[in-house]
């Protein structure tokens, strides 16, 4: 009967840990890059429409021309 290769098993566990850590770091950098810098100074979200835009659902172009 063949004896177990403990070094191989250990190396596989280490590689799995390393891959999981790298994946977590990559996920953290993609979600961590949003620091709220696009919000106004008061912390409230910016309004959806810009000044001079048509009301939603009217079908009118934003510049007011028909």
What is the subunit organization of this protein? single chain
SSE ordering: H
Q: Whole-number radius of gyration?
A: 27 Å
Instruction: Report the β-strand fraction as a percent range.
Output: under 5%
Per DSSP E runs of 2 or more residues, the count of β-strands stands at: 0
Supply the helix-strand structural class. Answer: mainly alpha
Percent helix among the residues?
40-55%
Q: What count of helical segments does DSSP give? A: 1
Low-confidence stretches: none
Write the layout of secondary structure elements.
Layout: H1 6-32
Q: Can you give keywords for this protein?
A:
41% helix; 66 residues; single chain; 1 helix; mainly alpha; 0% strand
Q: What's the gist of this structure?
A:
The protein has 66 residues and is an all-alpha fold. It has one helix and no strands.
Structure overview:
- The protein has 66 residues and is mainly α.
- The chain has one helix at residues 6-32.
- The longest helix is centred in the N-terminal third of the chain and has 27 residues, at 6-32.
- The mean pLDDT is 75.
């Amino acid at each position: 009967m063949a004896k177990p290769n403990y070094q191989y098993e250990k190396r596989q566990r280490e590689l799995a840990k390393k891959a999981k850590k790298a994946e977590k770091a990559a996920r953290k950098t993609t979600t961590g890059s949003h620091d709220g810098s696009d919000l106004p100074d008061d912390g409230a979200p910016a309004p959806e429409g810009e000044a001079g835009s048509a009301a939603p659902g009217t079908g009118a172009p934003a510049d007011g021309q028909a």
